[in-house]
Amino acid sequence: MARRRRTAPGESLAESVFLLAFDVRKQRLAGLSDLGYVVRAAVLAEFLLNGNVADEGGKVRALTPPVAPTALEAAVWEQLSASPPRSWSRWINKNATLAYRLVRDELVAARLVHVEHRRILFFPVQRVTPRRPYVSRRLAERVTSAARGGQPVGRLPQELRALAALAAAAKMTTVLSQREWRQYRKRTDELSAPIEPITTALRKTLASHHSSDAAG
Fold it and tell me: How many CB atoms lie within 10 A of CB 94?
């Protein structure tokens, strides 16, 4: 499959996932604790679609290195290429916090997000906000239409289909409510077909993550 060309900052699948996570009305990131995992899954999805990796019995096999990778893609590729085939879940889980920071910094450099550092009760905190909220708004509109069935799945651009599939696996509330994601599950399963091993692994990873959090 031909590699999608990037013509502007913010066009990698991982960057699009990050921008899609902005709640524009509240000027904050939604589902922040999940975002590192979703970003890692997005890199793997882009690699799979571009032929950099292949699914081998539920495991990731590295094939050919990505062309002009972002900092995050280069870091993930280095891990994949130095390892024997391992499960998709393993690579989604690995260094999720670092993945979040790398894609955030890429978007800061592209002047698509702003990071504000401050202290609350002597503790350092960080607030990440979009510089161009309309980018996140338009992404959400396109993904919402794709998830609801605006046009046949086969006519959707590859990157939009993958983005909608990842958003569905993570049940991103900036796109649809939890109830609506359940309502459109058949449609989103169709969207997910080209990257199904990744969306399945992402759902399991997030379910495990949430269970651990609930257990304290």
Answer: 16
Full-model pTM: 0.91
Enumerate the β-bridge partners of residue 22. 29
Q: Are 89 and 204 in contact (CB under 8 A)?
A: yes
Q: What's the per-residue H, E or C state across 79-145?
A: HHHCCCCEEHHHHHHCCHHHHHHHHHHHHHHCCCEEEEEEEECCEEEEEEEECCHHHHHHHHHHHHH
Task: Name the token pair of 119.
Answer: 């202290």
Contact of 201 with 89, CB cutoff 8 Å: yes
Q: What is the pLDDT of residues 94-138, one digit of tens each?
A: 999 999 999 999 999 999 999 987 776 667 777 899 999 999 999
Residue 132 phi, psi (nearest 5): -125, 80
